[in-house]
């Protein structure tokens, strides 16, 4: 009998990523904003009060749910260290070369004692549709498996845009008053984000060239290979 391998993608909630939005298997659509940060502690007391007031106004203006996600990722600065070493070799000024060696040594000591983390901030705006499902069979009811969903992707995205785009513009405008710049992630950026989440090791060496199909690894790697 041919070997059967279960795809880990069957267990993902994501159906597709298209037109700068994430489509879920249950008919949901998600629009994702990337947001900058504000160093609140460096602001004056008056500036802090203004930020708090603007943030309060933002929360009170929301008539729809949002999800805030903060992603902390350990930074790989090996390429940066290699560039520093190459610059040292090419530097002919003895004084500057000594300074560069000292700086590289300082960075190496710093990262050996502390993890260098890169924090990214995302805001997710949801849209949900009620979809038709195929009738459940006896086995589906016993094992509580999800029914097959009848999904018209183009119609779903068209309707989602009508609901999500005004919410996006409102949120970007309100965030700007808080001092936070936000923008919608593109399809390419969304694919790269999820690829990096589920394939962190592969993502360090491989980047998306043009489209999702250019990836050679699956979206999710199984922890245990089927025997």
In short:
The protein is an alpha+beta fold and 227 residues long. 43% of the residues lie in helices and 17% in strands. It is built from seven helices and six strands; from the N terminus they run E-E-E-H-E-H-H-E-H-H-E-H-H.
Could you characterize the architecture of this molecule?
By secondary structure, the chain is α+β, with helices and mostly antiparallel strands. The protein has two domains: 8-73 and 119-214, no CATH class; 76-115. Helix content is 43%, strand content 17%. It contains seven helices and six strands. Strands 1, 2, 3, 4, 5 and 6 form a six-stranded antiparallel beta sheet that branches. Helix 1 packs antiparallel against helix 5 and helix 2 runs antiparallel to helix 3 (94-113). The chain is flat, with a radius of gyration of 23 Å. The two termini are 14 Å apart.
* Backbone shape: flat
Helix content: 40-55%
Low-confidence segments, given as residue ranges, are: 132-147, 220-227
Structural class: alpha+beta
> So how many helices?
7
Number of domains: 2
Number of strands: 6
What is the terminal separation in angstroms? 14 Å
How much β-strand is present in the residues? Answer: 15-25%
Main β-sheet: number of strands, strand sense, barrel status?
6 strands, antiparallel
**Can you write the helix and strand succession as a string?**
EEEHEHHEHHEHH
Mean pLDDT: 79
């Amino acid at each position: 009998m041919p070997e059967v391998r279960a795809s880990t993608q069957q267990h993902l909630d994501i159906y597709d990523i298209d037109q700068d939005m994430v489509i879920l298997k249950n008919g949901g659509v998600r629009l994702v904003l990337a947001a900058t940060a504000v160093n609140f502690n460096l602001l004056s007391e008056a500036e802090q009060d203004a930020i708090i007031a603007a943030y309060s106004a933002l929360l009170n203006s929301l008539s729809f749910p949002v999800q805030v996600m903060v992603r902390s990722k350990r930074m790989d600065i090996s390429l940066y260290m290699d560039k520093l070493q190459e610059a040292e070799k090419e530097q002919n000024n003895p004084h500057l070369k000594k300074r560069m060696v000292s700086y590289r040594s300082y960075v190496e000591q710093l990262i050996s004692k502390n993890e260098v983390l890169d924090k990214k901030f995302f805001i997710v705006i949801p849209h949900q549709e009620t979809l038709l499902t195929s009738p459940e069979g006896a086995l589906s009811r016993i094992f509580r498996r999800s029914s097959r969903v009848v999904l018209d992707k183009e119609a779903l995205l068209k309707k989602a845009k009508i609901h999500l785009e005004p919410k996006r513009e409102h949120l970007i405008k309100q965030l700007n008053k808080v001092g936070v710049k936000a923008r919608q992630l593109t399809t390419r950026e969304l694919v790269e984000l999820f690829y990096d989440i589920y394939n962190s090791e592969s993502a360090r060496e491989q980047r998306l060239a043009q489209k999702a199909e250019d990836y050679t690894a699956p979206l999710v790697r199984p922890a245990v290979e089927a025997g």
